[in-house]
Amino acid sequence: MGNLIIVDYGMGNLNSVKHKLSKIGIESNISNHTSQLIRADKLILPGVGHFKKAVENLKSSGLWDTLYDAVIKNKTPILGICLGLQLMAKHSEEGDVDGFGWFDANVVRFNVKDKISHKVPHMGWNSIRLAKQSLLISDLPGNSEFYFVHSYHIQSNDPSEVLSFTEYEYEFPSAMEKGHIFGLQFHPEKSHDAGEQLLMNFAKL
Fold first, then answer.
1. Residues 6 or more apart whose Cβ sits within 8 Å of residue 72
2. Of 122, 150, 153, 187, which one is the catalytic site residue?
3. What is the pLDDT of residues 99-142, one digit of tens each?
4. 140, 192 Cβ separation under 8 angstroms
5. Could you give the CA distance from residue 4 to residue 77 in angstroms, rounded to a whole number?
6. Does 196 participate in catalysis according to the annotation?
7. Is 18 exposed, middle or buried (0-12, 13-18, 19+ CB in 10 A)?
8. Which of 19, 59, 80, 129 is the most buried (most CB within 10 A)?
9. What torsion do the CA atoms of 195, 198, 199, 203 make, to the nearest 10 degrees?
């Protein structure tokens, strides 16, 4: 399955992703070394926290330019998880800063009207509605649910890039795909069998 690197830029629970991969027999390494990232066969960009801080960390460490070279120039497959997906958008309301711009999308805060039934952050299990077919979501168990924790979500300007939607008072894109670039708003490493299957699918791409 090649050399899979989990990008360490100081945000998120990297070890939970690595532990889940190990559980399903996928070897991976956590790294912030630019030389290792540029040689990776696949990359996972996890993240939990503030968008602006994540951008600052990536740029100050030199990982921003390295990821651009790996993903855009070398066409290395990459999977963004939660904040990792949001960083692939053009811009975020959280901190009013630009992302990588790999998806034609922006990141906005949840704008729910019923704040009793739909608390922000959106936290817990929810289902997805597929917008297109993809090898990333093949062989998933029926009626799969995934675990979410987020206050902001993707707002896509290009429907062809949306892989799935999830409803939380209103529908929002919960997974994105553009060629070799994938992103998930939910946490596959916390989503039991469905999450394991999804991670296995990515590793086998």
1. 102
2. 187
3. 999 999 999 999 999 988 899 999 999 999 999 999 999 988 76
4. no
5. 10
6. no
7. buried
8. 80
9. 170
CB of 77 closer than 8 Å to CB of 40: no
Torsion of CA 46, 48, 50, 54, to 10 degrees: -30
**One of 91, 189, 192, 196 is an active-site residue; which one?**
189
pLDDT per residue over 148-205, tens digit each? 999 999 999 999 999 999 999 999 999 999 999 999 999 999 999 999 999 999 999 9
Among 82, 94, 150, 161, the one annotated catalytic:
82
User: Taken in order 27, 33, 39, 43, is the CA torsion positive or negative?
Assistant: positive
Residue where the block lists tokens 């460490």: 61
Amino acid identity at 78:
I
| Domains parsed from the chain with CATH numbers | 4-204 (3.40.50.880)
Q: Quote the CA–CA distance of 163 and 178 in Å, as a whole number.
A: 9
In what helix (H) or strand (E) does residue 168 lie, and over which residues does it extend?
A: strand 162-168
Structure tokens at 94: 């959280």
The pTM for the full model equals 0.96
